[in-house]
Specification:
heterodimer; A: mainly alpha; two-stranded antiparallel ribbon; 14 helices; about 75% helix; globular; B: about 270 residues; mainly alpha; MetI-like fold; about 0% strand
């Protein structure tokens, strides 16, 4: 007789001894109690979620149909803000800049992070060197974006900055419309490459060493092993990096705000700084809300698309 | 696979150069803060002045109050709900989890306007709660993912043994599960701490009073005062960054665990 059968028998015997008429009764009461405790446990988080996130989204939706008169009264304006958004070249410029920002930062951070992680994973550099290297590259992640912006602002300064010290007549990194956005994006890459590297290194360390050994024994070179064995197994890590990078790009604010303020002439404007400008500098809350709704919808759509893409890839691999 | 020695030397040198390049902004900041305003010498006077500068202590204390309260609130709310979602069966469980996770994808910037209105209605401008509550609401999802993943791996036998000993859900959670989750709780606390400490947009919007500003607003505040005295400003930036860097060096391993464990398996 199996162990489970034994236990069932002894339990029913126990039930007879203690004389409980409904064998399920106690279990059910316990479950009901558990249900009550469970609601108590999730209540605080849910309240914060309802009060801030759900209310926030709902308020954005409501407010995006409201406008203000000269005397501060709020009136219903219908689709006005959405219509002007569609015809606002700066909105489209900001959206475009968010896209450029995502491609440049996530592309380079992921690529550089992966190359560095693969090198560290070779285990030939000595553990002290690896620790030093990881410490240095990851350090900017913990720093405040405002501090970073001011330091890099001085590095980029075309007259008395660090770069100008080596390179006389260097371009005006933050002041030229062609370079401003890319110069700020470079700072983002400096700050976040360490994050990609560590995430990828963690994923590489989860791949059994035997897999690499087997590939080498079969005659595969290092590059082939990396391409055909390691990279496919890094897909979940890549998906995580892309989704985190996408959210990070869409909510970019600090670096751009401090270093260029979206300028010159909106050349480096992103949605975050533009919402700030419209809602808080110009007091057009309705328009700010309409752009926030657009930003939320965009985030949702892109996240779902990315998840679908990576899941399909996953299924194929 | 054997890697030739000269290749190893080459890789090492390239990585070393890269690391030095990464350190350059920090070294430059330190250099500017140590350079004397007169002549070519070096001086500690800027750093000394930065340490005793008016207001910095207050900014620091404000940040500590906001950040530690956020950490407490996030850790408390997230561990309770993560445990319920992981272990207790209740109606609407997956709905609660899915909707909390959705918050993970909310861009801060898209919620700035409603948060502004909420704080205006509740009179929470220049009030610690005006930052603590939104930081917590936005910080819970990440903590929830890490803790739920950890609770999922917690051995059920331990809990069953406690049930047989007559312990209720509360006792199991507080005296069995929580004490055994210290490592995951640490990861959650550290990341929540860093995010709240460095948050800028909401602090900029809600803390206009100089006595209520947090440390992330300090650089811009002093930039307005010392825009022409680069050495002084850089010294202030150094002083502001040192506590965070010490924090980083002390807790580096837990931070790495947050990147590698939590984010990946989310």
């Amino acid at each position: 007789m199996s162990m489970r059968g034994l236990r069932a028998m002894s339990e029913s015997a126990l039930g007879q001894v203690t004389g409980s008429r409904q064998p399920g009764g106690r279990v059910r009461r316990r479950q009901r109690e558990q249900q009550g405790v469970a609601y108590l446990f999730v209540a605080p988080a849910t309240l914060l979620f309802l009060g801030f996130i759900v209310y926030g989204i709902a308020y954005n939706l409501y407010n995006s149909f409201q406008g203000q008169t000269l005397y501060g009264k709020t009136i219903f304006v219908g689709w006005l803000h959405y219509a002007s958004m569609m015809h606002d070249p700066i909105f489209w410029k900001a959206l475009y800049n968010n896209g450029i920002w995502f491609v440049v930062t996530v592309g380079i951070q992921t690529l550089l992070g992966y190359v560095l992680a693969l090198l560290l994973d070779l285990r030939v550099l000595g553990s002290r060197f690896v620790k030093f290297f990881k410490t240095v590259i990851f350090a900017p992640v913990v720093l405040s974006p405002v501090v970073i912006s001011l330091v890099w602002g001085h590095i980029y300064d075309p007259y008395r900055g660090l770069i100008a010290g080596f390179w006389h007549n260097c371009p005006n990194w933050l002041g030229s419309p062609q370079l401003a956005l890319l110069s700020v994006a470079l700072v983002n890459i400096w700050q976040w490459t360490g994050f990609s590297m560590l995430l990828c290194l963690g994923a590489l360390q989860d791949i059994p060493r035997e897999l690499r050994e087997a590939a080498y024994i079969d005659g595969a070179g290092y590059l082939q092993t990396a391409r055909y064995i390691l990279l496919p197994l890094l897909k979940p890590a890549t998906a995580t990096l892309f989704i985190l990078g996408m959210i990070g790009s869409l909510q970019q604010f600090g670096l751009v705000f401090v270093m260029t303020g979206g300028g010159p002439a909106n050349a480096s404007q992103v949605l975050g700084t533009y919402i700030y400008k419209k809602a808080f500098s110009e007091g057009n809350f309705g328009y700010g809300s309409a752009m926030s709704v657009a930003l939320l919808v965009l985030t949702l759509v892109v996240t779902v698309l990315q998840l679908a893409f990576f899941n399909r890839e996953q299924g194929r691999a | 696979m054997r890697i030739p020695r000269h290749v190893i030397v080459l890789v090492r040198s390239v990585l070393l150069v890269l690391a030095l390049l990464w350190l350059l902004p920090g070294a430059y900041t330190l250099f500017l803060s140590l350079r004397s305003d007169v002549g070519n010498g070096f001086t500690l006077s800027n750093l000394w002045a930065a340490l005793s500068i008016q207001g910095l202590g207050r900014f620091f204390v404000n940040s500590l109050v906001v950040t530690l309260s956020t950490v407490a609130l996030v850790t408390g709310c997230a561990s309770l709900s993560a445990y319920a979602i992981s272990r207790l069966s209740f109606r609407g469980r997956s709905l609660v989890y899915a909707s909390l996770l959705l918050t993970l994808m909310m861009p801060f910037t898209a919620l700035a306007v409603p948060f502004f209105i909420i704080n205006k209605t509740l009179h929470l401008f220049n009030n610690y709660l005006g930052l603590i509550l939104p930081y917590s609401a936005l910080g819970i999802p990440f903590a929830l993912v890490i803790l739920k993943n950890f609770f999922d791996t917690f051995p059920r036998e331990l809990e069953e043994a406690a049930i047989i000993d007559g312990a209720g859900v509360f006792r199991i959670f507080f005296s069995l599960v929580l004490p055994n989750s210290i490592s995951s709780l640490t990861v959650v606390m550290i990341w929540t701490f860093l995010n709240a400490w460095n948050e800028f947009l909401l602090a900029l919007l809600f803390m206009s009073d100089n006595s209520m500003k947090t440390i992330s607003l300090a650089p811009l505040f002093y930039e307005g005062v010392y825009c022409n005295v680069v050495g002084r400003l850089m010294a202030i930036l150094v002083v502001i960054s040192i506590p965070v860097l010490v924090f980083y060096l002390a807790l580096q391993q837990q931070l790495e665990k947050g990147v590698q464990g939590g984010a990946l398996k989310g």
